[in-house]
Structure prediction request, 302 residues.
Amino acid sequence: MDKIDRAKISVLIDGELSQEEAELVYKAIAEDDSLRKEYEEITKLNGELKSYAQTVMFRPEVTFPKSSTSLNIPIPVMIFAILILRLFLKLIPSIIGSCFEIIVLGLVVTLVLQYLIRVSDQERQLLLNR
Amino acid sequence: MNEFSRISDDEFKQLIEPLLEYAGGYAFSIVRNREDAEDAVQEALLKAYKELSSYDYSKSFKAWWFTIIRNCCLDLLRKRQVRSTSDDVELDDLPLLKINRQKKLEQDDEISWVLSQLAPDHRQIIELRYFGDCSYREISEILDIPEGTVMSRLHCARKALTDIYRKEKENG
Prediction:
């Protein structure tokens, strides 16, 4: 009958045994020829598999997804901020105010378009992968 | 909601970036094709990003993401199988995972051939350990089995591999 659980040979090779347990397994291996043979075979196999895994490993060229809005601000806060800005613009002379309003409107339209393009792009990628 | 549902794009990238190389190797070990492995990792990346709120942060992030990669790879193999034949097949019977002897000689790739001869349970655990560089704990989370089972199954898989090697040598 074996002195140790043979699965512990694998655990020893993987370095997942405590110092105390590792010493017990090493002792058993030294005293039992069949355990030593198994240990040697698995050590050899372990090395071969590791070097094979290294040869097939590669860094895939992937595109990281981006959040649907470039600003991480909740929508109600954004609406509130726009209303406050609008109120502020009404208080300054009308000629400057209208210019500012056009700029702000342009920015809002740009953000909305950016959002729609990103969402549709992600959906398209998912659909293509499906 | 958990803390991961609010992480920024940069934080997500920082979590994924160090795992990418192993993800590539792991996906390759399942689909046996670099282009498909890349597609599977990309798909897994999008899924992980979308489902980040479902991640249980008490568990390993790597284990969670590799589970998604595994599912994406298996979906890809199923689709490939559906394209090539209209017959219903079990996942374990997928021909891509069984490389024949002739191909072995053509590829001069003994380890790849030997791995393809393993039982699905054994192959699965070898792929995670060597190509995914997963710890026992991570493997136990991905396969949803106790760590003790990981230890014994990994040992059995290694024994099976050495037996296949031995038989190979005996047969010349």
The longest helix of chain B spans residues 61-84. Chain B has a mean pLDDT of 83. Chain B has two domains: 1-96, 98-172.
